[in-house]
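Dear colleagues,

As part of the handover before I leave the project, I'm documenting each prediction I ran so the next person doesn't have to rerun anything. This entry is a single chain, and its sequence is reproduced below.
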Amino acid sequence: MSDIVNGHCGISPEMAIRPDKAFGGGAETWCRLQAACDLARAIEHAAAITVKRSRHEV
């Protein structure tokens, strides 16, 4: 738990069960919080991501 609190690792689905049991909130919520954190970090570096645009329309 110390590594998670200090930002040294993320919350896996299995690990999400632990804070749910300790503090409540639901394992799904802890997983969503981790996904939101991961996305926020990726957005910070979005300028470095290059993608060739597809010609196919969706």
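Residues 35 and 41 are 10 Å apart (CA to CA). The chain is about 55% helix and 0% strand.

All the best with the project,
I.
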